[in-house]
Amino acid sequence: MKNLLFTGICMVVMAHHSSATGPQYSIAGIPPPLLRNANSVIRLHETTFKVTDPDHASEKVHYVITLLNSKASDEAEIRVHYDKSSSVRNLEFKIFDALGADITRSYRKLETTDESAISDGTLYSDSRCKVVSPVIAQYPVTLEYSYERNFSMVFQYPAWAPIQTVNQSLQEAGFTLITPHTLKPRFMEVNLVPAAVSRSENETDYYNWHISNITAIEDESFDAPFYELIPYLLLAPGQIKYENYNSAFQDWKDLGKFQSYLVEGRDKLSPETVSKLQELVKACPDRISKIKTVYKYMQSRTRYVGVQIGIGGNQPIPADFVDKKGYGDCKGLVNYTKAMLKAVGIESFYTLVNAGRNAPPVITAFPCDRFDHIILCVPGSPDTTWLECTNQQQAFGFLGSFTQDRNALLITPDGGRMVHTPKYAMSQNTSFRKAGIRLDKDGNAEAHIYTKVNGLQSENVEAVYYENPEEQRKGYYKRSGLADSRISSLKYTLSGDFLPQGTEEVDLFIPAFASRSSNRYFMPAVLPDRVNRVPAYTSARTSPLVIRNEFTDRDTLEFSLPEGFVIEFKPEKQVIETKFGSYSLIVENIGDKLVCIRSFSIYANRFPAAEYADFIVFMKKITKADQTKIVLFQKV
User: Fold this and answer.
1) In 3-state terms, what secondary structure has residue 203?
2) At what angle do helices 271-280 and 287-301 cross, to 10 degrees?
3) Does 261-420 match 9-116+127-242 at the fold level?
4) What is the pLDDT of residues 338-359, one digit of tens each?
5) For position 118, what pLDDT does the model report?
6) Closest CA to 4 of 362, 292, 274
């Protein structure tokens, strides 16, 4: 499903073409504050979006960007998307050097190409794009683009987000919306976008927004999501018209009614499939086991394939098509699973959501269609079951970091209803490790390390579980920080519903695990992969400190020492308690073993930028403790 919010310049619509000439684009014309922390500067970003009637609209775009260095090389490309309900014309470009001189002719082979817009995993699509992709050899350089698009179907208005990435500043940008007086749009200004200047003339309404001189956002560790830091504008039509559907669009309920229209009649399955499903669940003892049986059946016989055709890729392919062909995109697979559950007497709801760890938010106060993914909600008592239908290995009832803890729109028979997906707590996102390490007289070690992870931390195991053994070994060497070790056995498991559990079990030989100096050996109390990297610190930090996910790690290492070795030094008990998290390290003798117990928890929360310095102090203390060595002395 497509998302129109932050998808690059191709989704931004702009105004009349300026008559500016090259020298205007000399880098000398950039105000010095806009160069600070910037890899690129948007010189001009004008947009006009004109709605002529509920079915038709056009846009004009004029975009000028100066790339200051090679870090901004990817920003040289423009991709203007279109499909069977839209067209692109008059895509033009010019390129200027640092002084503003036109050097377009030196790019003799550069031309506009027309490409399929399908991505990996997409079977077919009517989405295409016009592309200009210059390869820049010398910086700074300025690129000027302009184009027009026409739409024959308009049930969404574009969002306007002129700044697209960190380390990008903006000199001037404007957005103009033109609509008939009879079509009242809705809009919301977010993060420094001033209120619209509006006027009416000849039964036409004009709305204009303008922003300028926005300095670059520096990429900072644990910073706030990008969408919280940039100015953007949300827009939506006051009514939705498509084919025979024509209704007001003022709230989430209205959007849900339109989505119901798109899905209506697409949940039909053959009588043979219905009978097979009913037979499949006949022996299930309860409702949850029925849902799981249907879900696992769907996973076993389908695969995810993008099918982006018709009305902007927002309508699912019919359930019987997925049943026969065995593939579908998120819409098709959710609709298919919903149809199968219906066949066995279980109600479920098609649900719109934004996916990804850093997905832009759905602002509940402004109903608009900015969703990019579909999941399935199966209501129940006492708990609702959530199903991710596009991953054939996903644990039953587990959403994971892809769609957890965010606003979503439930499509019910009565229209749309805003809900919130589950959030996985610290007590659920755990990692428990137990290791037996036998040291020899040369400081080498034989180790058996068993790690069990739960919740969101199980995704680390899922990422490697389906790899071949050779790839698993390569990955382990890289992640563990034990590149010189030799693995004799490595095994992963993945299991569990609702809150999956993964395990990693490894036997390995670690040369020089304890470094030697004469008769002394310096042995780590914490395995290398647990030692945290201290985030970069800047006193000029501007972004709030945001810890998105919380977790707990607990490790127990049991060391067996060679005969004749004594402990000359071991760390004192360390306990650190802060608002950001907690840490403890205990090293003690238990029987004939030296045991190191490490616990580390991080709390999800948001803190003012001024408290980032305290967070750095916390992380430095942990890193220092993790790097503490145990000193062993070998008796002669």
Assistant:
1) coil
2) 130
3) no
4) 999 999 999 999 999 999 988 8
5) 62
6) 362
Instruction: Tell me which of 83-87, 212-216, 548-552, 605-609 is least confident.
Output: 83-87
**At 3, is the secondary structure helix, strand, or coil?**
coil
What would be the CATH architecture of the domain defined by 261-420? Answer: Roll (3.10)
Distances (CA, A) of 490 to 59, 468, 525: 57, 11, 23
pTM across the whole model: 0.89
Domain ranges, ordered by start, for the chain: 9-116+127-242, 261-420, 430-634
For residue range 455-507, list pLDDT tens digits in order: 999 999 999 999 999 999 999 999 999 989 999 999 999 999 999 999 999 99
User: Cβ(342)–Cβ(274) under 8 Å?
Assistant: no
Interatomic CA distance for residues 472 and 502, integer angstroms: 14
Compute the residue count for the chain: 636
CATH class of the domain defined by 430-634: mainly beta
> pLDDT tens-digit profile of 360-391?
889 999 999 989 999 999 998 778 999 999 99
Report the alpha-carbon distance of residue 504 to residue 481 in Å, rounded.
Answer: 16
- What's the mean pLDDT in 173-201? 95
- Asked whether the beta carbons of 125 and 8 are under 8 A apart, the reply is no
How far is the C-alpha of 164 from the C-alpha of 45, rounded, in Å? Answer: 12
Task: Give the Cα separation of 185 and 181 in Å (integer).
Answer: 10
Q: Tell me which CATH code domain 9-116+127-242 carries.
A: 2.60.40.3140
Extract the tokens encoding 95. 């390129």
447 in Cβ contact with 473 (< 8 Å)? no
